[in-house]
Amino acid sequence: MRRVVVTGIGALTPLGNNVNDFWAGLIAGKSGAAPITRFDASKFKTRFACELKNFDPLNHIEKAEARRYDLFTQYALISTEEAIKNANIDFSTLNKDRIGVIWGSGNGGINTFQDQVMEFAKGDGTPRFNPFFIPKMIVDIASGIISIKHGLRGVNFTTVSACATSNTAIIDAFNYIRWGKADMIITGGSEAPINESGIGGFNAAKALSTNNDNYLEASRPFDVNRDGFVMGEGSGTLILESYEHAIKRGAPILAEVAGGGMAGDAYHLTGTHPDGDGAYLGMQAALEDAGLQASDVDYLNAHATSTPTGDNSELKAAERMFGANTSLNVSATKSMTGHLLGAAGAIEAIACIKAIQEGIIPPTINTKEPEPAFAEKFNLTLGQAQKKTVNVAMSNTFGFGGHIATSIFKKLDA
């Protein structure tokens, strides 16, 4: 099977609207949380989120075109343009029959769906729907629009595995390239869930933090006082291609995709297995796929959403996989970005790639009293970034329904 490398990345996040600003926010330990501006949240249990800042899609997309796309598709297009630019791609010189798009989104056009249904409910029952309603809403449309925009005729689909979605997309893209089904694939994920339906639904599920008085520190993974996750939004794009293809076109190589593992918790509708059985299986499968040992991993970007049950189950799985290992840096970047749901795996993969490139581990912020059973077993990278040579980085993502996806990136070994 062919080796697969990352040649471009693009990010649109609550910490910054491009990769450099996103990374600067991460290593500075910046919180992306703020009061919700997208709608009047005054009567909601949670009134804050990690929204994009100083973002105007019309700076990137023509107004007439933007009207045809839900926010999640707009986000996907914008982060993808950055990744294409960073990868120095000129599609006119490449075989576009061998270039595909595998995208991910957990909710798709939830905002479009909400707006159209609310508009209908205000009327007298006469159906008056936007002709773009269905194509704006359906979850696969971002991958379709990216391929149409650039004339890419290779494999094209969208994965959905809740909060494991974009990690699943990355693993699928990795597999299609190494199986020889494509030379290059644009992959990643986008999510735009900050609206009445998204916040209200997760509030009803008792998944969100309600720490409205101290929202900057509400996302506190591993902390004994954590009370739920903070909603985030945005997009992350990775350009994956075969090593030979990248070398032939003189592409910048940022990292190698070493392996990927997927599994099912088979336990609960929304909760993770209390002993982390699924998480362990995902990490084990990824290491076996990569031909690596647990001791080879320098950095684990944990799923760690800041929920009472989820964080502990992941740490139990990590202890089972790595042992009590203080040389392993673990960090929860959701403490800064919030939880981007289906896009989380994409931006956290980018965090892993930057950690490899820069030799810096982004921190876990806000955690003041870590779970005593694990406080001394791992280096949770509390409070501030740490310099460290990172040869191998692992990224965990877990989703409602028991979906597990773990990806591994490594420094290129020519």
From TrEMBL:
Which InterPro entries does the protein's record reference? 3-oxoacyl-ACP_synth-2, Beta-ketoacyl_synthase, Ketoacyl_synth_AS, Ketoacyl_synth_C, Ketoacyl_synth_N, PKS_Beta-ketoAc_synthase_dom, Thiolase-like
Q: Which Pfam families match?
A: ketoacyl-synt (PF00109), Ketoacyl-synt_C (PF02801)
* Keyword Cell wall biogenesis/degradation assigned: no
Q: Which domain of life is it from?
A: Bacteria
Keywords carried by this UniProt record = Acyltransferase, Fatty acid biosynthesis, Fatty acid metabolism, Lipid biosynthesis, Lipid metabolism, Transferase
- Pathway per the UniProt entry: Lipid metabolism; fatty acid biosynthesis
Catalytic reaction equation(s)? (9Z)-hexadecenoyl-[ACP] + malonyl-[ACP] + H(+) = 3-oxo-(11Z)-octadecenoyl-[ACP] + holo-[ACP] + CO2; a fatty acyl-[ACP] + malonyl-[ACP] + H(+) = a 3-oxoacyl-[ACP] + holo-[ACP] + CO2
Q: Extract the GO molecular function terms from the UniProt entry.
A: 3-oxoacyl-[acyl-carrier-protein] synthase activity
Active-site residues per Swiss-Prot or TrEMBL entry: 163
**Residues in domain Ketosynthase family 3 (KS3)?**
1-411
Task: Give the enzyme's EC designation.
Answer: 2.3.1.179
PROSITE patterns for the chain? KS3_1, KS3_2
Gene Ontology CC entries for this record: cytosol
Look up the record and give one Gene Ontology term from the biological process aspect. fatty acid biosynthetic process
UniProt cross-references to NCBIfam families, sorted A to Z: fabF, PRK07314.1
| Family affiliation | Belongs to the thiolase-like superfamily. Beta-ketoacyl-ACP synthases family.
Q: What does this protein do?
A: Involved in the type II fatty acid elongation cycle. Catalyzes the elongation of a wide range of acyl-ACP by the addition of two carbons from malonyl-ACP to an acyl acceptor. Can efficiently catalyze the conversion of palmitoleoyl-ACP (cis-hexadec-9-enoyl-ACP) to cis-vaccenoyl-ACP (cis-octadec-11-enoyl-ACP), an essential step in the thermal regulation of fatty acid composition.
Record protein name field: 3-oxoacyl-[acyl-carrier-protein] synthase 2
For this protein's source organism, the top of the classification is: Bacteria, Pseudomonadati, Bacteroidota, Chitinophagia, Chitinophagales
Q: What gene is this protein a product of? A: fabF
